[in-house]
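STRUCTURE:
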């Protein structure tokens, strides 16, 4: 996925004629007396760009955002434990986000963003091996989920790196916190004989989503960081010079 992002950004820079990505983003001066307003506008333009809302630019991979596969070790109270492989993952509206607030320390290149996703949906195929209700199980199927009011807080510290005489930003420290307000899932087994046990799991989750979301929080936070946020962020920082993102 990261390589796809690199290629896309490079092509945008090399292929731009009447307008460039720099023009679309319109970066801020650190000395701007109203830096916060300028930076909020800059971020909102970046969000619009990723969501294909700026004419002349097309991001082909963001909605749905596709992830080939990931492995997850699950251990959920009252359900059981399993090793799960999820593949052909599609996340819709991953970047449809509202910025609630930003904080920053320009001298130390520290930025903190508070964000809300009103609604996200995801679907995937899965293979689970483990124990369900203390019974050994091998289950294959598909799952669809809807998440609402997803609040995120991202804290970033950047550093300056130099490549071929050009300065770029790179992530020096990254912290992500997430809270999902509510969720519902629909699970289908490839084997109809296994559907009743998946119906039980589905109903347990949907009846008390808050309990299971809290249990799963460390897992989905880590996956969002490594599979969604960091690949896009690292690729953009690798391509775009520092003085095109933040002007002195």
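SEQUENCE:
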């Amino acid at each position: 996925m990261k390589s796809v992002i690199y290629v896309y950004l490079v092509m945008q820079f090399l292929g731009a004629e009447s307008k460039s990505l720099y023009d679309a983003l319109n970066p801020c001066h650190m000395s701007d007396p109203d830096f916060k307003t300028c930076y909020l506008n800059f971020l909102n333009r970046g969000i619009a760009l990723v969501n294909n809302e700026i004419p002349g630019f097309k991001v082909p991979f963001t909605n749905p955002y596709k992830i080939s596969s990931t492995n997850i070790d699950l251990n959920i109270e009252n359900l059981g434990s399993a090793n799960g492989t999820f593949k052909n993952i599609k996340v819709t509206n991953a970047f449809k986000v509202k910025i609630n607030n930003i904080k920053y320390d320009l001298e130390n290149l520290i930025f903190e963003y508070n964000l809300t996703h009103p609604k996200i949906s995801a679907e995937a195929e899965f293979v689970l091996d483990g124990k369900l209700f203390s019974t050994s199980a091998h289950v294959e199927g598909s799952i669809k989920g809807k998440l609402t009011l997803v609040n995120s807080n991202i804290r970033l510290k950047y550093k300056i790196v130099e490549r071929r005489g050009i300065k770029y930003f790179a992530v020096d420290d990254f912290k992500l916190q997430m809270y999902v307000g509510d969720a519902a899932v629909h699970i289908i087994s490839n084997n109809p004989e296994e559907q009743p046990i998946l119906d039980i799991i589905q109903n347990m989750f949907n009846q008390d989503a808050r309990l299971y979301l809290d249990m799963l929080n460390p897992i989905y936070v880590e996956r969002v960081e490594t599979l969604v946020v960091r690949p896009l962020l690292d690729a953009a920082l690798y391509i775009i010079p520092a003085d095109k993102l933040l002007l002195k």
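REMARK: DSSP finds five helices and eight strands in the chain.
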